[in-house]
Design brief:
This protein has two domains: about 70 residues, Helix Hairpins, CATH 1.10.287; about 60 residues, no CATH class. Helix 2 runs antiparallel to helix 4. The protein has about 170 residues and is mostly helical. Helix 6 links the parallel strand 3 and strand 4. Strands 1-2 form a two-stranded antiparallel sheet. The relative contact order is 0.10. It is built from seven helices and four strands, in the order H-H-E-H-E-H-H-E-H-E-H. Pfam families: Acyl_transf_1. This is Fatty acid synthase-like. Keywords: Fatty acid biosynthesis, Fatty acid metabolism, Lipid biosynthesis, Lipid metabolism, Multifunctional enzyme, NADP, Oxidoreductase, Phosphopantetheine.
Length: about 170
């Protein structure tokens, strides 16, 4: 794998190795797990909710976005997501250049890819950061940055452990 990554970098391709602990997430190898995952989710996702037209699926190809699997936020969709390749680049092509993007992931792995693909006019924040001492602080800082960029001013979050500074 290291040699292949070095070859791609030499050709000018952006590559980042991800330690997945030898688990092939988002692949057909997850099929047995996806069945149990769906069964567990069925207890909580008890109704079919039609997703917004703004929803960009990265686990169902665009030509299938009108299928029942892609149209509804269900346990079937989530289980499919677990076992299907991630169509991240294709999805990012649909994101407006001035979008606010919040990466909900364990370490903010995709921030550089998002910024390179969508462009400098997007607001992109991650809610967690690997090896950060205080991820709750990081979370609130990220929300603050996105809000400040959106509105051009600071917003005080009541009850967020922030002192009242008297700022309007």
């Amino acid at each position: 794998m290291t040699k292949f990554i070095e070859e791609l970098i030499a050709r000018g391709v952006f590559v980042k190795e991800v330690n997945s602990n030898n688990v092939s997430y988002h692949s057909h190898f997850m099929q047995p797990v996806s069945v149990r995952f769906k069964k567990a989710l069925d207890k909580y996702l008890t109704s079919k909710n039609l997703r917004s037209k703004k929803w960009i699926s990265t686990s169902v190809p665009e030509h299938s976005w009108d299928s029942p699997l892609a149209r509804y936020a269900t346990s079937d969709y989530q289980a499919n997501n677990l076992k299907s390749p991630v169509l991240f680049y294709e999805g990012l092509q649909k994101v407006p250049k001035n979008a606010i993007i919040i990466e909900v992931a364990p370490i903010g792995l995709l921030q550089s890819v998002i910024k390179r693909t969508v462009g400098p006019d997007c607001i992109s924040v991650s809610l967690q950061k690997r090896n950060y001492d205080n991820n709750l602080e990081f979370f609130f800082t990220a929300l603050g940055k996105s809000t400040t960029k959106l509105t051009g001013s600071c917003v005080r979050l009541p009850g967020a452990g922030m002192e009242d500074t008297g700022y309007p």
